[in-house]
Amino acid sequence: MKMTDRSLRTPLARVRGLGSAKSGTHHFWIQRLTAVALVPLTIWFALSIASLATADLPSVQAWMKSPLSATLMLSFLLAGFWHMKLGLQVVIEDYVHSEWTKVTCLVMNNLISIFLALAATLAVLKMLLGG
Amino acid sequence: MAAGNRPLSPHLQVYRWQITMALSIVHRISGVGLALGMLLLTWWLAAAASGPEYFDMVHGIMGSVIGRVILLGFTGSLYFHLCNGIRHLCWDAGYGFELGAMRNSGILVIVATVVLTLGTFLIGYGAV
Ligand code: HEM
């Protein structure tokens, strides 16, 4: 760091590179990583679900018993819910400005995302492993 | 100057609507719409795991006219967000920032969304 640098940031803050949100580029990076993973997964998902649109329950369950379908479905759920949680967080931070409402929305976003991800995952596992 | 009184930029009211800004806000709307879609998917998976009676009920709702309209919206949002998301990822990698390229890729996203959505409904129901 040059002594002529007139930035008010301390050298330590500069080296850490975490910015004012204290999490640096981690959020951005995971959002892009899940987006890239979702490109092939979404194409697979849309076509699979479309082919199940008029299927009866035994066909749906038989389809989910295939380890390949179940693995891809679980991958879609993991990447999708993670990406969703990060995306909604940005939307909340953009539009909700009063501090307490914002914190409440962010906490609810986390809890609901995790709850839904668990519920969907368990449903897939139950069909994969169940009788 | 009082904090609440500062000029805002850009002035949305005086901007002429352009395809680039329309697609930008639609990306956000489709993302929030897809979150509701993930809720719907969880409901459907849970129904399939829980047994015939509940599944038939959910299946009936989703197969009804209103259900299919919602699924059409979900499918359209998914394809739009997918195609426009790929556009976003290209920008992140540094490609496609020229004005002309931005417009053209935007039009391509709209065409691809319509084609893929209708094609998927053809696979699903044999009709739209
Ligand atoms: C699984 C369903 C999906 C859900 C629920 C979802 C949800 C969201 C949400 C809520 C946002 C935030 C929007 C904003 O800040 O304006 C977002 C952003 C984004 N999504 Fe998705 N998304 C999904 C699938 C995908 C797919 C398949 C891609 C493929 C490339 C993708 C790429 C992106 C990108 C690149 C952004 C960042 C846009 C920006 O920087 O403004 N998403 N998504």
What is the ordering of alpha helices and beta strands of chain A? HHHHH
CATH topology of chain B: 3 helical TM bundles of succinate and fumarate reductases
CATH fold topology of chain A: 3 helical TM bundles of succinate and fumarate reductases
Q: Mind summarizing the main beta sheet of chain B?
A: none
CATH class of chain B: Mainly Alpha
What is the overall silhouette of chain A?
elongated
CATH architecture of chain A: Up-down Bundle
Level-2 CATH architecture of chain B: Up-down Bundle
Structural class of chain A: mainly alpha
Please describe the structure with a list of short key phrases separated by commas or semicolons.
heterodimer; A: 131 residues; mainly alpha; 3 helical TM bundles of succinate and fumarate reductases; 0% strand; elongated; B: 128 residues; binds protoporphyrin IX containing FE
Topology:
The complex is a heterodimer of chains A (131) and B (128).
Chain A: H1 11-16, H2 26-51, H3 57-65, H4 67-95, H5 99-129
Helix pairs in contact in A: 2-4, 3-5, 4-5
Chain B: H1 19-50, H2 52-63, H3 65-92, H4 99-125
Helix pairs in contact in B: 1-2, 1-3, 2-3, 3-4
Bound molecules: protoporphyrin IX containing FE.
How would you characterize the overall build of this protein?
The complex is a heterodimer of chains A (131) and B (128). By secondary structure, chain A is mainly alpha-helical. Chain A has one domain (22-129): 3 helical TM bundles of succinate and fumarate reductases (Up-down Bundle), CATH 1.20.1300. Chain A is built from 5 helices and no strands. Chain A has helices at residues 11-16, 26-51, 57-65, 67-95, 99-129. The model of chain A has no long low-confidence stretch (mean pLDDT 92). Chain B is mainly α and 128 residues long. Chain B has a single domain (18-124), classed as 3 helical TM bundles of succinate and fumarate reductases, CATH 1.20.1300. Helix content of chain B is 77%, strand content 0%. Chain B has 4 helices and no strands. Chain B has helices spanning 19-50, 52-63, 65-92, 99-125. In chain B, helix 1 (19-50) packs antiparallel against helix 2, helix 1 crosses helix 3 and helix 3 (65-92) packs antiparallel against helix 4 (99-125). The mean pLDDT of chain B is 92. Chains A and B meet through helix 2, helix 3, helix 4 and helix 5 of A and helix 1, helix 2, helix 3 and helix 4 of B. The structure holds protoporphyrin IX containing FE.
